[in-house]
Write a structure and sequence with these properties.
six-stranded antiparallel β-sheet; seven-stranded mixed barrel; about 575 residues; alpha+beta; 26 strands
Length: about 575
């Protein structure tokens, strides 16, 4: 008796697929519409105050920074810092459009994007630290990002508009031409700081405690208090930590709802998932801030650092709508049935209402046209400097960004079109009394551009094999087996073979994929296809861990038998 392992992976046209999935989640987001993506950015509840004209202007500011040699020497001692220790500072004069700002505190910023002050540094400018009440277009603090990891210079602005439209507190972004001691640094991404003005725009009370963690550090590590009257109280953080570590899933969910602003947290993680923002809190314990809101007595997470999104970090554009979670709180939420259900529903809602490729690409083109126009004016102002000549990196790269947006939307649509399969629990091998289990659950990976691959399990020569067929005589697919393991030591043994219609048998060297490192990213290990003998350990801190085996098949035959029947996994510890 034949047993189908998956449905035929035949997909309709891209447009139909997107329509199908987005129609499935066609619900409105209160108070928001796509008109928010006008040239001035998102509106509604995040309407900027009149004095915050920086993010409403159609022009791009020109910022000149002057740092005395003493301050330059201080900044030359700056290093990329992973923790929350204090960075060297300098005092500067900043001028913009004829207005002079004095006693501006300057620090270098960035970790992987860190550059020295004599190169193309990322900068943080604090206008009121040494000059109380001094503001730059209504802002007391801003960052100037060098965009080393984003040649488009579009990721930050587009991503932040999406988070804002989803109701997630997030600093706004725009652009500035930057000069440092008369040296042209070029176009920078200007980002609003996490300061009192920001908190007042998003919360009824701004006297709570705003925290900043170090690079790749969770909320259980030493934290820096960015603002707040009571710098010693950490009970709210400890309450959230206890909730996240609660072993009973039902009690954990109740405790998390009491200590965490769950609605905004789910929206943040959902947008991070949609954008493949794998260098985020949820997936990498990175690029975030969190605030203890005294009004609700709950913790509110806020995203940061979005220069590597949409397949430019460590995830492909086919990232699952249930990606691996390294963030302690994100892992705690999504490991509960209710958290998992609500996460998938939130991803579907925001995908439908926000991540619409046609409108997003219109927005991308609007921003790019504004940058190009400003560069032309800057050329004229500076007398055709070679630095700004040519079409510019953003002009060359923005069509690729639109392509990535379309591809990501297609992947999300495909996943939602097969939602029961996505939501199915990851199985565990059925270990016998000797601790030996079989690796089953094989199925071809779904791909948008591959059609008419069928897969059936059947007996052949006394073994259980998978029969793969295609109608075009060119069988190209990737067989996958995913399984979940508890903490312990394991050994994988056996072999994997394919047999074509010509009778020729070939050994396959599979890959083992794991998301178990300290950073988000696949640990990929290729095994010997003739005699697999691979030992590995699942740590208690990462258990249960999902392991995936990948076998790429390229065969000119229209029919192939895939045989992994000899593959065994053995638990080697008691």
């Amino acid at each position: 008796m034949k047993r189908p392992c998956i449905l035929r992976s035949f997909f309709p046209s891209l447009v139909a697929l997107l329509t199908l999935a987005q129609s499935f989640f066609a619900v409105a987001i209160t108070g928001w519409s796509w008109s928010c993506f006008a040239a001035e950015g998102p509106l509604g509840p995040l309407q900027a105050a009149t004095q915050d004209d920086l993010f409403q202007s159609t022009s791009i500011v020109r910022i000149s920074i002057e740092i005395p040699e003493e301050g330059m020497q201080s900044l030359r001692h700056s290093m990329p810092r992973k923790g929350v220790e204090t960075k060297p500072r300098a005092q500067a004069r900043v001028s913009e459009n004829g207005r002079l700002y004095t006693h501006v505190t300057v620090q270098l910023k960035g970790y992987t994007t860190f550059r020295s002050v004599d190169a193309s540094p990322g900068l943080t400018l604090n206008f009121d630290k040494s000059s109380p009440k001094q503001k730059f277009h209504g802002l007391s603090k801003l960052s100037l990002n060098n965009s080393i990891q984003d040649p488009t210079r579009l990721h930050e602005k587009v991503s932040r508009e999406l988070f804002a439209a989803a109701g997630v507190p997030v600093p706004r972004a725009d652009y500035a031409f930057v000069l440092l001691n008369g040296r042209e640094l070029g176009l920078y991404v200007l980002v609003e700081g996490f300061d009192k003005q920001f908190l007042k725009r998003h919360f009824e009370r701004s006297d709570g405690t705003l925290y900043e963690a170090g690079v790749l550090q969770d909320i259980d590590r030493p934290l820096r208090v960015a603002s707040g009257k009571d710098r010693t109280s950490s009970e709210a953080v400890q309450r959230l930590l206890r909730a996240s570590r609660e072993p009973d899933v039902e009690e954990r969910w109740r405790a998390l709802e009491r200590s965490l602003d769950m609605d905004r947290f789910l929206s943040m993680v959902a947008v991070e998932t949609i954008l493949c923002h794998s260098d985020s809190y949820s997936m990498n314990r990175n690029n975030y801030r969190f605030y203890h809101d005294p009004g609700s007595d709950k913790i509110v997470f806020m995203p940061h650092g979005m220069d590597r999104v949409l397949g430019t970090h460590r995830s492909g554009l086919d990232l699952s709508i249930l990606p691996p979670m390294l963030g302690l709180v994100a892992r705690a939420v999504l490991s509960t049935p209710e958290g998992r259900r609500r996460h998938v529903a939130r991803v579907g809602t925001l995908f439908t209402n926000l991540f619409q490729p046609n409108l997003l690409c219109v927005r991308v083109r609007e921003i790019e046209a504004r940058i190009s126009s400003a560069k032309t004016r800057e050329l004229s102002f500076r007398g055709h400097s070679p630095l700004m000549s040519g079409p510019g990196m953003a002009g060359r790269e923005f069509p690729k960004l639109c392509d990535r947006i379309v591809e990501r939307a297609a992947s999300l649509a495909m996943q939602f079109a097969h939602l029961p399969e996505i939501l199915a629990p990851i199985p565990s091998p059925g270990f016998d009394a000797n601790g030996v289990g079989l690796i089953e659950y094989w199925k071809p990976k779904r791909n948008i551009d591959r059609q008419d691959i069928s897969c059936d399990a059947e007996a052949r020569d006394g073994r259980q094999v998978m029969r793969l067929r295609t109608s075009d005589g060119d069988l190209r697919t990737s067989m996958r087996a995913k399984f979940s393991l508890s903490a312990g030591l394991y050994r994988l043994t056996g072999s994997i073979k394919t047999t074509g219609t010509d009778g020729a048998t070939h050994s396959i060297s599979p890959f083992v994929l794991r998301y178990s490192s300290e950073r988000f990213g696949l640990e990929q290990r290729q095994l010997n296809g003739r005699a697999i003998n691979y030992s590995f350990k699942v740590l208690g801190s990462r258990a249960p861990e999902e392991i995936e085996l990948v076998c790429d098949i390229r065969d000119d035959s229209a029919e192939v038998w895939f045989d992994a029947s000899s593959l065994r996994i053995t638990r080697e510890d008691p």
